[in-house]
């Protein structure tokens, strides 16, 4: 539902009319679901115009990995070094890498403990949404405070990275 049209496309199909067509490819909360992240990144790069930007967001820190990640189909969480390594193996030169969600780390640790005590069938429902409006207000206030800081956090629940193909360094 919503505005626009919905398309289904297997990035490995490499449809000729889509190759080299885009200024940016966004992989937001995608890569953690892919077993062979290097091949997936290489396939994504083929869709960029020369000089195009690849932007990736993934869950961070394997020590935060929980039953929620398993239920959501996550293969892994990333550290800055593991995402930079995936970029390097795919021929992507990172231009930026930033953790975010530092204020949510205690919340994810609590969720991890809480989900150990709950029915696995309810993991996604219980592990994603704040339980009430007061909790939603507290969490959104924490994120507003964090995003107003004049510096990035040294760790977080998520990792955002961007870069270009090695061959596109000057483009």
Question: Summarize this, please?
Answer:
By secondary structure, the protein is α+β, with helices and mostly antiparallel strands. The chain is 34% helix and 21% strand.
Largest sheet: 4 strands, mixed
The portion of residues forming beta strands comes to 15-25%
Low-pLDDT residue intervals, each spanning 5 or more residues: none
Question: Count the helices. How many?
Answer: 6
From N to C, what is the helix and strand string? Answer: EHEHHEHHHE
The oligomeric state is single chain
Gross morphology is: globular
What separation lies between the terminal Cα atoms? 37 Å
Strand order of the largest sheet: 1-2-4-3
- Beta strand count: 4
Rg, alpha carbons: 18 Å
SSE inventory with pairings:
Elements lengths: L21 E7 L8 H9 L2 E12 L7 H5 L8 H11 L1 E9 L4 H11 L7 H6 L4 H16 L9 E8 L6
Parallel strand pairs: 1-2
Antiparallel strand pairs: 2-4, 3-4
Helix pairs in contact: 1-3
Please tell me about this protein's structure.
- The protein is of the alpha+beta class.
- It has helices at 37-45, 67-71, 80-90, 105-115, 123-128, 133-148; strands at 22-28, 48-59, 92-100, 158-165.
- It has a 4-stranded mixed β-sheet, covered by helices on one side.
- β1, α1 (37-45) and β2 form a beta-alpha-beta unit.
- It is globular and about 50 Å long.
